[in-house]
Amino acid sequence: MKPQLRLTMIIILANILTGCIIPSAGDLRSLPTVPPHLTTETPVAKIETTPTLQEFAADVNPLTGLQVKDPSVLNRRPQVIKISNAPVLVRPQAGIGAADIVFEHYAEGGLTRFSAIFYSQAPDRVGSIRSARLIDTDLMPMFGGLLIFSGASTGVETLLNNADYANRLFKGVLFGQPYFWRDETIEVPHNMFMNPNAVWKKATEEGINQRPNLRGLSFDATVPGGNKAVVSKIDIRYRATRVIWKYDPAIGLYRRSAD
Q1: Among 115, 168, 185, 186, which residue is least crowded by beta carbons within 10 Å?
Q2: Which of 198, 65, 28, 30 has the alpha carbon at shortest distance from 122?
Q3: pLDDT digits (tens, 9 = 90+) for 194-225
Q4: Is 10 domain-assigned?
Q5: What is the rounded average pLDDT of the residues 51-64?
Q6: Residue 76, domain member (yes or no)
């Protein structure tokens, strides 16, 4: 290596080593102290909203939001009535159109069943009456009702009998006319029917027909998003059941068809 190039390399290396020298403690003390920068989040006030329950006039059914001609019919318990949906011979079901609310739920084998809530209206004949299901252990405390059913599985019946509403169970096989009866023109077990007014009278005699607190539902005649947002068809399918709801603009309601 040439002397001039060797000298240049030594100078460069010396400069690099000089830049890497660790400062002494005295040098560190002479360095300016930079206070740490703390980032704090601006507190945001939490807005807590308390849901308010819709108040209804004395003549308004709290299960439908509709006026009733006779407000006294609201001074009783709703009836949670188990109504069959299969086989085809049980259709059309008796009296189900008078129910205020109808729950269609899965039963078994791809078939559905109804838990119909009767409150403001009382046809003379409702049915056919079938057995209770697990869903009814939730519906009973929700509506504070009288449960109308033909029977239940051991598990469901145990839950019902141990509930705080056990004195409001009306098991059809334990009652005769005028509460329950069998239509001999229809095959068993699809031929049990009942009379809601007779059951309400029986419940009143037993001191269990007080009006429950039914606040909680809210109603609005305005369609969310306007009429253009209305769904024209709802198609619900189980393995052995198909239910179709079609919107009828002439009446502003959905029409139901099955299978």
Answers
A1: 185
A2: 198
A3: 999 999 999 999 999 999 999 878 888 777 77
A4: no
A5: 83
A6: yes
Q: Which run of H or of E encompasses 14?
A: helix 3-19
Taking the chain, what is the end-to-end CA distance rounded to the nearest angstrom? Answer: 100
pLDDT in tens, 119-152: 999 999 998 999 999 999 999 999 999 999 999 9
Closest to 74 measured CA to CA, from 136, 8, 119? 119
Residue 206 and residue 216 in contact, taking contact as beta carbons nearer than 8 Å: no
pTM score, whole prediction: 0.76
154-161 and 136-143 helices, crossing angle to 10°: 20
Q: Answer yes or no: is 192 within a domain.
A: yes
Residue 212 lies in a domain: no
Least Cα distance to 56 among 200, 193, 218, 204 occurs for 218
Tokens of 195: 């009379």
Query: Which residue range(s) make up the domain with 137?
Result: 71-205
Residue that the structure tokens 């027909």 belong to: 209
C-alpha to C-alpha distance for 237 and 216, rounded to whole angstroms = 30
Q: Rounded distance, CA 85 to CA 113, Å? A: 5
**In whole angstroms, what separates CA 4 from the centre of its chain?**
91
